[in-house]
Automatic annotation (TrEMBL):
<keyword id="KW-1133">Transmembrane helix</keyword>
<dbReference type="InterPro" id="IPR003339">
    <property type="entry name" value="ABC/ECF_trnsptr_transmembrane"/>
</dbReference>
<feature type="transmembrane region" description="Helical">
    <location>
        <begin position="244"/>
        <end position="260"/>
    </location>
</feature>
<keyword id="KW-0472">Membrane</keyword>
<protein>
    <submittedName>
        <fullName>Cobalt ABC transporter CbiQ, permease subunit</fullName>
    </submittedName>
</protein>
<feature type="transmembrane region" description="Helical">
    <location>
        <begin position="148"/>
        <end position="167"/>
    </location>
</feature>
<dbReference type="Pfam" id="PF02361">
    <property type="entry name" value="CbiQ"/>
</dbReference>
<dbReference type="InterPro" id="IPR051611">
    <property type="entry name" value="ECF_transporter_component"/>
</dbReference>
<keyword id="KW-0812">Transmembrane</keyword>
<dbReference type="GO" id="GO:0043190">
    <property type="term" value="C:ATP-binding cassette (ABC) transporter complex"/>
</dbReference>
<feature type="transmembrane region" description="Helical">
    <location>
        <begin position="76"/>
        <end position="95"/>
    </location>
</feature>
<keyword id="KW-1003">Cell membrane</keyword>
<dbReference type="InterPro" id="IPR012809">
    <property type="entry name" value="ECF_CbiQ"/>
</dbReference>
<feature type="transmembrane region" description="Helical">
    <location>
        <begin position="30"/>
        <end position="46"/>
    </location>
</feature>
<feature type="transmembrane region" description="Helical">
    <location>
        <begin position="115"/>
        <end position="136"/>
    </location>
</feature>
<dbReference type="GO" id="GO:0006824">
    <property type="term" value="P:cobalt ion transport"/>
</dbReference>
<feature type="transmembrane region" description="Helical">
    <location>
        <begin position="52"/>
        <end position="69"/>
    </location>
</feature>
Length: 267
């Protein structure tokens, strides 16, 4: 239970401390532009070594600016699990000519292995870049940056409310889990089927509570004059010449990384 609670705390984006380093104080629009450019570069790479290098560099930067390595790794658990699943699916389903191994009657081809490694490296590198962006940018600033880039207002508003209430409902789930645990809902004397049934009941109750709370929040927003053209996020100051040059340098560097990766060879 303690691990579950700690995981919920680590997913609390609003709890992050900002304005501690130069990276924290950098304009969110530049950070968002750099993150998107770097992610586009990562998914364009054909050699797994370059995305893996970016992944390790983001870990180093995270530790250097004061983010505990344990917290960073916990935030990567879910994406890493998805990456592993994708790796296995591609490995077992992608065909080719050269067979490198056989697992339970399923042939594994060299092309499939290379592609699985490449996709795995792309996923963890992209997620690590986003994780660094989230860890150094306030949610409100990131949403305002999206609005500045002319992202539709409805998308920005929904994103902000989702981030706010996902963590709120996660805390609610922790409280419900604890209440069920104190009533021996997950006792070692119960069978696995019974525990899964109790967990399913907890998930259903949490889903109903989420619908109920969402309706109450929407009605409360309407009563306060919310409309489709309402501005939940604030504006920005003009971007300085120094920040403009930095953003241009990030985009150019991402482009050069793709060129370098292509020169290294591919699958």
């Amino acid at each position: 239970m303690r691990d579950f609670s700690e995981l919920i705390e680590d997913l609390d984006f609003e709890r992050l401390v900002v304005d501690e380093t130069a990276l924290h104080r950098l304009d969110p629009r530049i950070k968002l532009l750099g993150a998107v450019g770097l992610i586009f570069a990562v998914v364009s790479m054909v050699h797994p070594g370059t995305p893996l290098l970016i992944f390790f560099l983001t870990l180093i930067v995270s530790v250097a600016i004061g983010i505990p390595l344990n917290t960073t790794l916990k935030r990567l658990i879910a994406p890493l699990t998805i990456a592993i699943v994708v790796f296995i699916v591609v490995l077992l389903t992608y065909g080719g000519e050269e067979v490198v191994a056989e697992f339970m009657g399923v042939q594994i081809y060299k092309n499939g292995l290379d592609l699985a490694i490449l996709i795995f490296a792309r996923i963890i590198a992209s997620v690590s870049v986003l994780n660094l962006l989230i860890a150094t940018t306030r949610i409100q600033d990131a949403l305002a940056a999206l609005r500045w880039f002319r992202v539709p207002a409805i998308f920005v508003d929904l994103t902000g409310m989702m981030i706010r209430y996902v963590h709120l409902l996660s805390r609610e789930g922790v409280r419900m889990y604890r209440a069920q645990q104190t009533r021996s809902g997950f006792s070692n004397r119960l069978s696995y089927v019974t525990k899964m049934h109790n967990l399913g009941m907890l998930g259903g109750a949490l889903l109903l509570r989420a619908f109920s709370r969402g309706e109450r929040v929407y009605l409360a927003m309407l009563s306060r004059g919310y409309r489709a053209d309402s501005r939940i996020v604030s504006g920005f100051r003009p971007i300085s010449l120094k920040e403009t040059l930095l953003g241009s340098f990030i985009i150019l560097s991402s482009f050069l990384l793709v060129i370098l990766d292509r020169m290294m060879g591919g699958i």
